[in-house]
Design brief:
Layout lengths: L7 H4 L13 E2 L11 H12 L12 H11 L6 E4 L1 H13 L5 E6 L3 H9 L3 E6 L8 H11 L3 E5 L11 H14 L3 E5 L20 E6 L12 E4 L2 H10 L7 H10 L3 H23 L4 E3 L6 E6 L3 H10 L2 E2 L1 E2 L9 E5 L3 H18 L1
Parallel strand pairs: 1-11, 3-4, 3-5, 5-6, 6-7
Antiparallel strand pairs: 2-8, 7-8, 9-10, 10-13, 12-13
Bound molecules: 4'-deoxy-4'-aminopyridoxal-5'-phosphate.
4'-deoxy-4'-aminopyridoxal-5'-phosphate binds next to helix 4.
């Protein structure tokens, strides 16, 4: 064999997979079920037509950052943008993780945190969540004191459980990091707009806290790949050093800026999805042998009595795709259902009712 081998630490690593199937109702990847407003698409394309495409885009994404900062009521120097919040997280780990450094995650959580940490050569330390999928501040404090992680990753609302950590937990993690650090707390709020509070209110110039967010869910722009971090300006400056020059295309920058002008439409979509989540949770809880975890996101984790993988397969036969977590450690028997339109959710409920009856 004449081909070289990759870095030894990559050989063991599996790629990240989220199975896709061609079905009628896709409730498996936590996207918005609603396309962005047509007027947004028109405004975006009109603005794009006026751009000199033979020139590189604004490297600092200044207009976008200023517009985002205004909406978030933050200084523009605290905003960093990249191609999806995954790239934001990767940039953070390139800057603050790396060889001989550790990242602490609380499982079960978003698997890409561990994946990106490993890609950047960062050792992963695993903290366990409680039986209710919460982060125990006592356990976390012990781990932070013992392991002195360079980075602590907290996903809230947590994917795939939907758990929202209270402000007191974020404050306790920050206190432990300040006592035993230096370290950086990253709160991944990819689903933050669906929750009832945000760690954004704790970001300050001298606090080692970064909050990451995305346009993929609330802004219905998963295809465009835009995410951002709100962080102390000194941290933003480090991220700017690490990210590739001109990483954010002009199409993405303009889309991000124009989308903010449709704030009321987007906010009403969040309200619709939150009330639909509550309706779906209520209906699911009425089904036999099904436990629904409380969620502050646009998805629900359910634990089924019986063979969850078989139920997942039967749902696919009915044209409904949800995410099967039943064979994942700590998530035995669990399926994750993205909140769809009321019509999609009714199709899911009808299919699930039928499948559960057949199973009995
Ligand atoms: N964080 C969490 C918790 C997620 O669930 C996702 C999307 N699945 C992301 C980050 C990445 O989102 P994006 O790269 O589309 O912004």
């Amino acid at each position: 064999m004449s081909l070289p081998t990759p870095r030894p630490d990559l050989i063991e690593l599996e790629g990240y997979h989220s199975p896709q199937l061609d079905v009628q109702v896709r409730l498996n990847t936590n996207e918005s079920p609603y396309a962005p407003p047509a007027a947004f698409v028109d405004a975006w394309l009109d603005a794009l037509r006026a751009v000199p495409l033979h020139r590189y885009p604004d490297r600092a994404a200044g207009d976008l950052r200023r517009a985002l900062a205004t909406r978030l009521d933050q200084p523009a120097e605290r905003v960093f943008c990249a191609n999806g919040s995954n790239e934001v997280l990767q940039t953070l780990l390139l800057a603050y993780g790396g060889a001989k450094r550790r990242a602490l995650v609380f499982e079960p959580t978003y698997p890409l945190h561990t994946h990106i940490a490993r890609l950047t050569g960062t050792e992963v330390i695993v903290g366990e969540r409680t039986s209710e999928y919460r982060v125990s501040t006592t356990e976390a404090g012990i781990l932070i004191a013992a392991e002195r992680p360079a980075v602590v990753l907290l996903c809230s609302p947590n994917n795939p459980t939907g758990t929202v950590e209270p402000r007191a937990t974020v404050e306790a993690l920050l206190a432990a990091i300040l006592d035993h650090g230096p370290g950086l707390l990253i709160v991944d709020e990819a689903y933050g707009e669906f929750a009832d509070w945000s760690a954004l209110e704790l970001v300050a110039d001298d606090v080692p806290l970064v909050v990451t967010r995305t346009y993929s869910k609330v802004w219905s722009l998963a295809a465009l790949r835009l995410g951002f971090a709100v962080a102390p300006p000194a941290i933003v400056a480090e991220l700017e050093k690490v990210v590739l020059p001109y990483h954010l295309s002009v199409a993405t920058q303009i889309a991000g800026r124009e989308a903010l002008r449709f704030d009321p439409e987007m906010r009403s979509r969040v309200d619709v999805l939150v009330s639909e989540r509550e309706r779906l949770a209520h209906e699911l809880a009425l089904l036999p042998g099904l436990m629904v975890m409380p969620s502050g996101a646009n998805f629900l984790l359910v634990r089924v009595d019986g063979d969850a993988h078989a139920i997942w397969r039967r749902l696919v036969d009915h044209g409904v795709l949800v995410r099967d977590f039943s064979r994942w450690p700590r998530l035995e028997g669990c399926l994750r259902i993205t909140v769809g339109t009321p019509e999609e959710d009714d199709l899911l409920l009808a299919a699930l009712r039928g499948v559960l009856e057949e199973e009995r």
